[in-house]
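User: Okay, second chain of the day. Same drill as before: sequence in, structure tokens out.
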Amino acid sequence: MTGPRIPLPGPDEMNAAQRAVYDKIVSGPRGTLVGPLRAALHNPSLADAWQALGQVLRFETSLPRSLNELAILVTARHWNSELEWTIHADAARTAGLDETVIEAIRTCKVPDFSDVAARAIYEFCRELLEHGKAGDTAYAAVLDRWGAVGAVELSAVVGYYSMVAMTLNNHGIPLPDHIPAQLNSAATSRTLLPPGPMRAAAE
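Assistant: Same drill. Structure tokens below.
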């Protein structure tokens, strides 16, 4: 990755409005400023609304944390977003997502899901990203397990982290120097992940 395409001010270079939002971010569950909020801080009102929405969709959905992170990884892989993938691959491991699932998605293989719930999340997100909507079978699997709130939250997670990926990719937001890249994709556009077992069985 080359350097950023826009200036990314550090805390000592921020104006008062930017610093107020920065302090809110680093004192919250993120604990640090990494990623798209570095760009969004050029408009502090945008950054404040962004960080609040992101906190809900990363930390406060009704979905299990590991499956929420799975949805983010599917989104990051679709958009080939190195920073989004690397940060959330580690978060997914911490949350308990199986390493074989993470690696399969990274290498664009069909994950061997032992967890039916994880398979449902994968296929819902994959179809939503590829087609703009999840098919009836994938949608029903999420709706039946997590209800309307889960289906709405999952759609919002995919949409939000697509915005994150586009922001990271478009502005060239780099990984922190101390964090090695994990996606290492040469692709420069979207990646279409393979259908999961649920989809294959239905066909």
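The first helix runs from residue 16 to 26.

User: Thanks, on to the next one.
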